[in-house]
Write a sequence for this structure.
């Protein structure tokens, strides 16, 4: 069964950190770019960050959301078939359900349009509150 499973969410105070994981099962992630999205209550799902597959030994990362630049870092460990999102200096406005997804292509798209992604995880809740 092809599946993406997110984990690592939780309740954290403003200024804190969390690391989200996106683990794949039933298929290998190493040929595909993987993106993180988030959806806050009443808002559309928005792209956060993306990491490409290894392209001649280099991984390319895109930050789609300006608000996360300099605070969130996306990485991957293909040996573990997992992609991570390190989130630092968290703010209340980062509160959302976070999803990982792939459109089965090796490079990150220029823009993160949720409808183009066919494989999604179930999401993990991140709540930033004092």
């Amino acid at each position: 069964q092809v599946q993406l499973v997110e984990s690592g969410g939780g309740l954290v105070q403003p200024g804190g950190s969390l690391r989200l994981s996106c683990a794949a099962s039933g298929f290998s992630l190493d040929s595909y770019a993987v993106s993180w999205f988030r959806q806050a209550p009443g808002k559309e799902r928005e792209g956060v960050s993306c990491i490409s597959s290894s392209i001649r030994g280099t991984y390319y990362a895109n930050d789609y959301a300006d608000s996360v630049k300099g605070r969130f870092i996306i990485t991957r460990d293909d040996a573990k078939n997992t992609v991570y999102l390190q989130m630092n200096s968290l703010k209340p406005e980062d509160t959302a359900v976070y999803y990982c997804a792939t459109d089965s292509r090796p490079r990150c798209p220029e823009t993160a349009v949720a409808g183009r992604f066919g494989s999604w995880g179930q999401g993990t809740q991140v709540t930033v509150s004092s």
Notes: DSSP finds no helices and eleven strands in the chain.
